[in-house]
Amino acid sequence: MPYKGGVQLLPETQRRPTLASYTSGNSYFYAAVVLAVGFLVISAILAGYRANLRDKIDAIDGQISTSESARNKQQEQQLIDASKQSRIMKDLLANKLYWSQALARMQQMMQSAVTLTQMEATATKGTISFRATTDSYASVARQLAAFVAATGVNDISIKTIKATSQGTVEFDGDLLIDTKSMLTKQQPKK
Amino acid sequence: MNPKNIFGAFTLAIALFFFWPAVYGSWQETQAMRSALSERQQLLERRTIILTNAGQEYTKYQAAISGDTGRNFVQLVPVKKNTAELVSAMQDIAQNAGVQLAQVQIAEAKGKDTDPYKTLSLSLEMSGSYPSLRSFLTNLEQYVRILNVGSIQVSADRTTGQLRYSIKADSYFLK
Q1: Are A84 and B174 in contact (CB under 8 A)?
Q2: Tell me, what's the ipTM?
Q3: pLDDT digits (tens, 9 = 90+) for A12-37
Q4: Measured between CA atoms, how close is B100 to chain A, in angstroms?
Q5: Is A44 touching B (CB cutoff 8 A)?
Q6: B40: closest chain A residue by CA
Q7: Do A119 and B76 touch (CB under 8 A)?
Q8: Contact B149 A88 (CB under 8 A)
Q9: Contact B116/A84 with Cβ under 8 angstroms?
Q10: pTM for the full model?
Q11: Among partner residues B4, B5, B79, which is closest to A81 by beta-carbon distance?
Q12: Residue B146, exposed/middle/buried by CB under 10 A (0-12, 13-18, 19+)?
């Protein structure tokens, strides 16, 4: 007999449960709906906030781009070069060599009877190689004594001393100089 | 277990499973944008300060190099090789010292990689008297561009009675 509604003590027809039968009065379901709605609201708020942030970022990007195009790179390069020059100069000026000073000192050391015929001065080795001529061995000895006594000469080595057919004496050797005192300008002590 | 509760729990799980990552991801993206904005603001501030300072320093620099001392400062270690100017200066210095300049060779020396400058090596062949050599060296040392004489060779020319000099010097310019 077909079911016609109403209570059946022993139902003969199976009733299919509706969605409403699951949702109504279901606290878990309500919590899920509240959660979902809450998430949607939060997502919408965050999306709006992000759009606002994006606008701000775009505006700042625009300002950065404007400031980049307003840069004067030529001026900046000049300042960079000036900074480099300033740093380099200190070292280079401190190590600047003054050979005129060394030659003046050497001139003071030379005896009047001695004439230099050849000279080779090298800053890196700190040597002055020379060949000279004079009238006698005594003058050679006086010249060597003058080199030894002079300030700025650390050592002297004589290679040859020989008498020539013209009656003069030729000699050659190397002076090992103190490059600091001979070649650089001494700064006055403060 | 009650099927109603199972349905409710399942719905709650679905809500959490789909929406929580979406909201959390959205929050993370927002945080990333906030930090990007903050970085850009700092960058803009720094750039503004740097560019303002650079402008002020350039004005000061221009004022400083407008005088004689300032001009000399720029020429001590020039930005470029300025080889032509160097040759011309050698000629002037030699002429003023009374030295005859026979040969000038200029080559860029291979310096150390760590040096903040490049080196131009000059090789000069000259002839003249001893006082003129002294005068030449003194003028060279007073030349506005830094020139370091590395070696001097002097020999007497018996035929002319003059001295022959060979001078090697280094000059510098910026890398």
Answers
A1: yes
A2: 0.73
A3: 666 677 777 777 777 888 888 888 88
A4: 18
A5: no
A6: A60
A7: no
A8: no
A9: yes
A10: 0.72
A11: B79
A12: buried
In a domain, B71, yes or no: no
Contacts of B141 in chain A (CB under 8 A): 96, 98-100
Task: Kindly state whether A88 is in contact with chain B, defined as any CB-CB distance less than 8 angstroms.
Answer: yes
Q: Is residue B62 situated within a structural domain?
A: yes
The count of domains in chain B is: 2
Q: What is the pLDDT of residues A106-135, one digit of tens each?
A: 999 999 999 999 999 999 999 999 999 999
Which chain A residue has the Cα nearest residue B57? A79
Q: Do A81 and B22 touch (CB under 8 A)?
A: no
Taking each helix axis from N to C end, the angle separating A137-149 and A99-109, rounded to the nearest 10 degrees, works out to 130
A 112-141 near B (Cβ less than 8 A): 116-124
> In chain A, which stretches have pLDDT less than 50?
none
Identify the pLDDT of residue B154. Answer: 93
CB B73 within 8 A of CB B65: yes
How far is residue A185's CA from residue B7's CA, in Å, rounded to a whole number?
Answer: 97
The parent domain of residue B157 ranges over 76-174
Taking alpha carbons only, the member of A103, A134, A130 closest to residue A119 is: A130
- On whether both B89 and B159 belong to a single domain, the answer is yes
Give the closest-approach CA distance of B127 to chain A in angstroms: 13
Facing A123 at nearest CB: one of B37, B74, B151: B151
Whether the pLDDT of residue B2 is over 90: the answer is: no
A187 touches chain B (CB under 8 A): no
- In this structure, are B84 and B140 located in the same domain? yes
Give B109's contacts (C-beta < 8 A, 6+ positions apart): B118, B119, B120, B121, B170
**B30 is a domain residue:** yes
Class of domain A99-183: alpha beta
Answer yes or no: do B62 and B82 share one domain: no
